[in-house]
Amino acid sequence: DGTFGAVVISPGFTAYQSSIAWLGPRLASQGFVVFTIDTNTTVDQPASRGDQLLAALDYLTQSSSVRSRVDASRLGVMGHSMGGGG
User: What total number of domains does the chain contain?
Assistant: First the structure.
């Protein structure tokens, strides 16, 4: 019951969502809503990745089926290598 903090995770340069998928269950087991994403292309640059991470947070808090369970004051983004560089 209640709401949970949420985090969106982006893969590193030339990597795919599948390389970070294991982080979803791990962080969810600690009480977070977790959204792992694929980037538009595997060579997206930091500004584009940042925009994609923010768009994913907007989706989670405004349109997703779990939006009522997400605490919009407890949001974060992370990524591996360039995935965290946006």
Answer: 1
